[in-house]
Amino acid sequence: MELITAGGMRMPKLGLGTWRLKGTECTEAVLGALQRGYRHIDTAQMYGNEDAVGEALAATRVARADIHLTTKVWWENLAPDAMRRAMDNSLTQLKTSYVDLYLIHWPAPDMDLPAALGQLVKFQEQGLARHIGVSNFPAALLKRAVEEIRAPICCNQVEYHVLRDQSAVLSYLRAHGMALTAYCPLAQGRLAEHPALDAIARKHNATPAQVALKWLLDQDGVAAIPKAGRATSQQANLDALALVLDDADRAAIAALPKTERFVNPGFAPAWDVPAEGRAA
Ligand SMILES: NC(=O)c1ccc[n+]([C@@H]2O[C@H](COP(=O)([O-])OP(=O)(O)OC[C@H]3O[C@@H](n4cnc5c(N)ncnc54)[C@H](OP(=O)(O)O)[C@@H]3O)[C@@H](O)[C@H]2O)c1
């Protein structure tokens, strides 16, 4: 599996998302994924499944050191005390002494950003998080974290797929040697049946979901974490790594509208203005 290197972090480009997987279904999905060759698992305090992910980590034959594990602290818990409690709880649930990447899940409207980033740095210094980062940070906020506060973050996890432009965030991350992790890479499953992707997929004897995924994974500095509960989806997403897209495929995908956003809660920050129709 190809790795992204960012700020000393080495993270497999393809990971398994776990949002909405719970209990035994979640444990079995993570165990199956690890058995199939996945080495990157994405969870969060908010998903309510860290215990189920932890069960899989405890039961698998794959060594902990070979697994990249990401979790996230919820935006209502960004005061340093609350962050410490969240981290303790995540590690207990996950049955591990460290996570590979710890993210601020969403920026909070009224947060003390220097204090929250300072606490992330402490987690890193204490060895509780090997690497630290953010999620759902628009380019302007990212710039503040990196240039004003000088936080050693190495990743921003954002919604990114063939129907969403992320060129502002991506070019900033690339310029600073940081990774972009694409969440909802399949637009929450919608891209499994997209006509333009279907036309490309037929040409390659692949599926639209595989085309959508490979388009992301072909981009420098971009990882993707499709959620796949079904074994067939997990395998299809691994098989997508072998797909070879050509210039005509990329041009067809670049021409799709890029203004869709499927995760946009009331507490979301002011997003970057999308560059209509621009490819990454
Ligand atoms: N940082 C954030 O704020 C944030 C927000 C949203 C999500 N995330 C993370 O990103 C992950 C992925 O996002 P998501 O779960 O919202 O959506 P997604 O990965 O875009 O789509 C998941 C859906 O696609 C289906 N699927 C997966 N592989 C497929 C394939 N090869 N062919 C056909 N269908 C396929 C899944 O079905 P089955 O499960 O039935 O196989 C599921 O219904 C989350 O699980 C979570 O870890 C982070």
Give a brief outline of the structure.
With 280 residues, the chain is an alpha/beta fold. It has ten helices and ten strands. Strands 3-4-5-6-7-8-9-10 form an eight-stranded parallel sheet. A two-stranded antiparallel ribbon has the order 1-2.
Could you explain the architecture of this structure?
The protein has 280 residues and is of the alpha/beta class. It has a single domain (3-189, 216-243), classed as NADP-dependent oxidoreductase domain (TIM Barrel), CATH 3.20.20.100. The protein is 39% helix and 16% strand. It has ten helices and ten strands. The chain has helices at residues 23-36, 50-59, 80-94, 113-125, 139-148, 167-175, 195-204, 208-217, 231-239, 247-254, and strands spanning 3-6, 9-12, 16-17, 40-42, 68-73, 99-104, 129-135, 155-159, 179-183, 222-224. The strands form two sheets. Strands 3-4-5-6-7-8-9-10 form an eight-stranded parallel sheet. It is globular, with a radius of gyration of 18 Å. The protein starts with a strand and ends in a 26-residue tail after the last helix. The model is unreliable at 276-280 (pLDDT under 50).
